[in-house]
Write a structure and sequence with these properties.
Length: 134
Amino acid sequence: MPIDDALFLFGLLAAIVLGMLIGAKLAQARLHAWLAQAEKSIRSDAVQRSRQTLGGKFAEQLAPFLPGFKYDPTDARFLGSPVDLIVFDGLANNEPQQIVFMEVKTGNSQLSGKERKVRQLVEQGKVVWEELRV
């Protein structure tokens, strides 16, 4: 193989390797920029969801004192999970009329699977009174 051909092949190989190294560095820089942007977006979404969750928890406990709550707030007991409130309607007057299982929702939030199952049990009348003596 003549020296000119060998130098040409060596130069071509060096150019290919250099091009691959430059391409890899550019790809790495783009990846880091994308990751930084994605991280900002993910963190922002997490903060927003956290605020919504905290707002919902706050609303659950404050609900008996808000306009639109149609029962005496002193009749309401906060549970939190799987039902937010149990209202013993009329208990404050020593004349309970009904027991209300209440779920408080804010915004577009929907019932969870467990909450739907509890609602279904109440609607089917599968509610029992038990007394435990210790």
